[in-house]
Amino acid sequence: MKVSLSLLALGFGLSPLVAAVPLERRALSDADSSTLQLALYLEHLEFALYSGGFNAFDEATYQGDGFPAGFRDNVNVIAQHEATHASAISEVLSTNGVTPVPTCEYKFPYSSPKEFVALANMITSVGIGAYLGGSTMLSDNDELLTTAGSILTIEARHDSYLRAGAGASPFPNAFDTSLSAVFAYNLAQMFIVSCPSPLPIIVLPKLTLTAPTPPLNLQPPAGEGTVLSFSWDPSTFFVDVDPAAPLYIALINQVAKPYFIQVSSTGTGSGTVTVPAGVAGVAFAVLTTFSEGLTEVQLTEFGTLAGPAEVALS
Q: What gap in Å lies between CA 285 and CA 154, rounded to an integer?
């Protein structure tokens, strides 16, 4: 079936709503409701991640992995922040007659504090990107937009704390990378086992980063010149693609236009690209037939064959 992404793309409005903001006084539009539902979906995911990371290991195990005293307690603080965000969003939705999206069953591939923190950095980067990408969807609701901005800074502080605790730069680049609702939702799917109420957002064909990657799919930083290997299933594409046509990886990174890199085929459904100069932090890769010129919005609406896949660059 051929699907128009633009018909299914929902705006990602931003999560956490603090009690001090009287959002209940203003009726929610349909756009507000859909953006809050996606925000809640991601807040549930983050709470499960951080509460699991706190409960899975004791203080001695965290310190044995090189984290400072008190780091584990602060992981719990982050979890409680996410729980507060989720509770506040649920209250606003319920007050306005909207049934909040329930939690899902999740799976997170980590077996040590170091692996948990590496994964948390990548998942939190998705949340930060979604906040940035969704801010324009709330431009007609000043209360939600202001609250979203205040929460975005807290999410960024969470991520900086995690990175610093792991010995990485807390601010690896000058700009963060925004994400569309469709891309954010699809990135979350790799951690979902099942959901009682999936959101009405399209699930794209999967793009998998196959190298470089250590055990448990926790990818190490891939700087300029690193060869990235990807795999995909051409039979899942929403459009027909000539097998002989060149394919490209579009890297969405910071505030620059996406970088388009031609794929060197390594077989049906697999290929490699080399990380270009100028990218840093976290990037999001999508497979496309376009060689240049598309924005992230256009890649979301019609330009993506498969993806996104998250790539940790620094």
A: 26
How far apart are the C-alpha atoms of 308 and 62, rounded to whole Å? 32
CA distance 150 to 130: 14
Alpha-helical segments (H) within 202-305 = 296-298
In this predicted model, what pLDDT tens digit does every residue of 258-313 receive, in sequence order? 999 999 999 999 999 999 998 888 899 999 999 999 999 999 999 999 999 999 88
Kindly provide the b/e burial profile for residues 153-174, where b requires at least 16 CB atoms within 10 angstroms of the residue's own CB.
eebbebbbbbbebbebeeebee
Asked if residues 308 and 187 have their Cβ atoms less than 8 Å apart, the reply is yes
The full DSSP string for 43-97 is: HHHHHHHHHHHHHHS-HHHHHHTTPPTTHHHHHHHHHHHHHHHHHHHHHHHHHTT
For residue 249, give the H/E element and its range: strand 248-252
Reported as a single tens digit per residue, the pLDDT across 59-113 is 999 999 999 999 999 999 999 999 998 998 888 889 889 999 999 999 999 999 9
Q: 277-302 burial by CB neighbour count: b if 16+ within 10 A, else e?
A: eebbbbbbbbbbebeeebebebbbbe
Give the SS3 label for residue 307.
strand
Residue 167 confidence (pLDDT): 85
Q: Which of 3-12, 120-129, 216-225 has the least mean pLDDT? A: 3-12
Please report how the helices 142-165 and 113-134 are oriented relative to each other, as an axis angle in degrees rounded to 10.
160
pTM of the model: 0.88
Those residues whose C-beta lies under 8 Å from the C-beta of residue 193, and which sit 6 or more positions away, are 104, 105, 106, 107
Distance CA 145, CA 280 (A): 27
Q: Which residues pair with 288 in a beta bridge?
A: 248
